[in-house]
Design goal:
By secondary structure, the protein is mainly α. The protein has 17 helices and seven strands. Helix 5 runs antiparallel to helix 6, helix 8 runs antiparallel to helix 12 and helix 12 packs across helix 14.
Length: about 500
Amino acid sequence: MHRLLIALLSAFDALIAAATGLAVVLATLTLLWVLGIGAPDWSALWPATAAVWQLGHLVPFTVHLSAEYLATLGLPDAAASFAVSLAPLAFACFTAYRGVRSGIRAGRSGSWGVGLGGGAIAFAVVSTVVCLTAGGPVVVASVWQAILLPVLVFAIPAVVGAVGAVWHSDPGAVGRVREAIADLPGLWPDVPALALRGAGAALVALVGIGALGVVAALLFGGDRVVALYQSSNVDVMGVVVVSLAQLAYLPTLIVWAMSFVAGPGFAVGAGTAFSPAGTQSGVVPGIPVLGALPETSSPWLLVIVLLPIGAGVVAGWTLRGRMLDDEAPASVRAGTAGGVALLTAAGAGVLAWVSSGAFGPGRLAQIGPQPGWVALAVGVEVLVGAGILLLTPAWEPEPDLPREAVRSREKTRDLAETRATSAPGAPGAGADASAGAPGAGTPGAGAPGVGAPGAEVEGAEAAAAGEDDIETAPIDPGFLGGPGEIKP
């Protein structure tokens, strides 16, 4: 495919990703402007749309309130200027998803560098236009952050998708990295890919645990959520707007729940803490979804720390079947478990960082989990879980044998004991020989092979072999001494 066409297609992907996010915000605010406000100020519609879109792409900004507004609401002068950086991660998640898809397409096209460049430039153009056209005296953002951060939200996942698509075929920089890894001794070339796969499985499990935690919190605290909706005295349109805003923050709440399960927990304002070890709620904003926050803690909540260890077990189970046979050195297994823990800790730390920030003046300047503590706790827990699966030896139970095979094994053992006791020189061998000698009074004692010391052994062999396996021979007419002794 021609390089110009690849660049144009990637740029079109980036434009679609940016325009979709802007259109969702603009449509929602337009409905609010039309149905919820009696005399809307249409000049503020686009700046509000740009501010929400930028905040969703991790752009922090500063809010400046006029003295008249402070006097109307009865706010102190310290609230005249404050920072807002707590991002509604739903927008960032959508943009990152579109970036991964664009990177994969660019990688499959054969000129992934050109594709990534075209997409990044197109998204930078959109973010620049939004930044330069939506400035206002109330909401102010740094120009370089307003342009660069949205581009990074799109470009970094695009690079990851492109590298994954060309990992086995690129002859350039990616190929040189692949060859350098392949030159490692022993089984070490497999460790990076296994660690990435395991970390991905662990992070998916952790995010799933966080989502289940949000559902459980809403079920147990649903009455408080409804009470906060009722106390807000909003009409139907207000309920819809508040619910949509909370839905935009749903990924943020999932990361909070993941941090809670991991142990360090999170804060909703300075001096507050929500963790399994204890809860200090203090004064929490009257946002309805925050009614699901736990009011108290119990020592039994410490048991949920086993869930991140279970995420490590999931990662180890994912790799156990792919890795690594039983002859893999312990160092390789330990290195794989350590790589999984390190990458998972890094991913959890990044998630905790993007889900924390400020949401108002004073105490609301500190909201969300602490990235360092979350990364440390998740890394240790995943290391324990992955190590259990990767460092323990494989256990292969003995297969169940059929009953006939068990009987045959017992008969073979009895046969070996019989041979040992009937062998010449063994204890009791002479007695058996004299009892079976010719003339001992046993019928047919003089017949060849009858009463011989090995008769019982041959009978045991025949019984062990089974009736179908016995080879028969024609009857000798003289087996009783000749035809003359056969009486009619």
